[in-house]
Write a structure and sequence with these properties.
The protein has about 350 residues and is of the alpha/beta class. The protein has helices at about 10-20, 45, 60-70, 85-90, 95-115, 120-125, 155-175, 200-210, 225-240, 255-270, 300-305, 315-325, 330-340, and strands at about 1-5, 25-30, 50-55, 75-80, 125-135, 180-185, 190, 210-215, 220-225, 225, 245-250, 255, 280-285. The protein binds nicotinamide-adenine-dinucleotide (NAD).
């Protein structure tokens, strides 16, 4: 099977590409325009594999996509390309509308025309997996979990652009019969995550003895999902999901941001001792505007219909993640030195 993955040079997309090649022996075409968040070194383990191909292209560029679909004739698409950082969407939303909404629209149109021309046997097999987020559902209070039928109530420009793209994808199923499936997952963590997101930022700042910024009082809760479990879920969805359906993926690992930061501090203190405990570096900073209080996923449908479940537990996975960053300076040092040095993003100042 040949799978076209968009955003395969990013955090989750690279995990999907590696698993498709290593664990499933599938052919992969990675379509990515290499934004600041991309890192081709995440694909080193498959870069020389004959089953892997890379095409640098923007998903907003319909002609480029048409050409790629003609040349590779993929059997399926897993769509992950996106602007993914909420804080950046607050400071400058334009790229989020372009890629997440317009780019998804262009990709859907290319897929629809491609799908319509496929012979019947290949059309029956074709699938389009759209990777979205639990942030489309908005914020939970102290109780409850998101189900697939939870109404959409996005709070940030990022989550609004993802919600809009989900609606497009579903409409292309209802109107044109494109066999799409939508996944909504909770926050991912693990190796190869660009160090602007909470967990890698805190790990690297702790390693370097820098302040550990925590938004507000650190009480926001996320349901942390290990990236390899999520990639496994997306591939399982591709193989077993029902077209037209949505599936939630979560890690069953709710933690407040402050708990996550303190856990990382304890691990870094143990494996790389320093004169002062890392917790002394915790600095409470102005909260993110529109910061959702709590996300939690009910993944019953994915468990029941797909037979999917996260494989590990948060405590082991977060330790493995810290160790990975300690052992892989060469992966993160170049982007930390040039692309993003850890400065505060996402305060609601004028648009970029
Ligand atoms: N990281 C999370 O915790 C999380 C949680 C829920 C959902 N998601 C969703 O999963 C997907 C992947 O997230 P991620 O964390 O791996 O993101 P990421 O920012 O690490 O990677 C995104 C990738 O998409 C590429 N890209 C961006 N714009 C593009 C364009 N116009 N054309 C082609 N490629 C483009 C980038 O170059 C990058 O390689 C996104 O759709 C995101 O909304 C992520």
């Amino acid at each position: 099977m040949r799978v076209l993955v968009t955003g395969g040079a990013g955090f989750i997309g690279s995990a999907v590409c590696r698993q498709l090649v290593h664990e499933h022996g599938m052919d992969v075409i990675n379509v990515d325009n290499l934004t600041y968040a991309a890192n081709l070194r995440s694909l080193d383990s498959i870069a020389g594999d004959p089953r892997y191909a890379f095409e640098q292209a923007d998903i907003c560029d319909r002609a480029a996509l048409d050409d790629i679909f003609v040349r590779y004739a993929p059997a399926a698409v897993i769509h992950l390309a996106a602007e993914s950082h909420v804080d950046r969407s607050i400071t400058g939303s334009s790229a989020f509308i372009d890629t997440n909404f317009v780019g998804t629209y262009q990709l859907l149109e290319v897929c629809r025309r491609y799908y319509d021309r496929l012979p019947a046997d290949r059309r029956n097999q074709f699938r389009f997996v759209h990777v979205s987020t639990d942030e489309v559902y908005g914020s939970l209070g102290a109780t409850g979990r998101f189900r697939e039928d939870t109404p959409y109530q996005p709070s940030s420009p990022y989550s609004a652009s993802k919600a809009a793209s989900d609606h497009l994808v579903h409409a292309w199923f209802k109107t044109y019969g494109l066999p799409v499936m939508i996944s909504n997952c909770s926050n991912n963590y693990g190796p190869y995550q660009f160090p602007e997101k909470l967990i890698p930022l805190i790990i690297l700042n702790a390693i370097e003895g820098k302040p550990l910024p925590v938004y507000g009082e650190g009480t926001n809760v996320r349901d942390w999902l290990y990236v390899e479990d999520h990639a496994d879920g997306l591939i399982t969805l591709l193989q077993r999901g029902r077209p037209g359906e949505k599936y939630n993926f979560g890690g069953d690992s709710e933690r407040t941001n402050l708990e996550v930061v303190k856990t990382i501090c304890r691990i870094v203190d143990r494996v790389a001792p320093a004169p002062r405990p890392r917790e002394s570096l915790i600095t409470f900073v102005q909260d993110r505007p529109g910061h959702d209080l709590r996300y939690a996923i009910d993944a019953t449908k994915a468990r029941r219909e797909l037979g999917w479940a996260p494989r590990g537990n948060f405590d082991d996975r977060i330790e493995q993640t810290v160790l990975w960053y300690l052992e892989n300076h060469a992966w993160w040092e170049p982007s930390r030195a040039t692309v993003y040095k850890g400065e505060r993003l996402g305060l609601a100042q004028a648009q970029l």
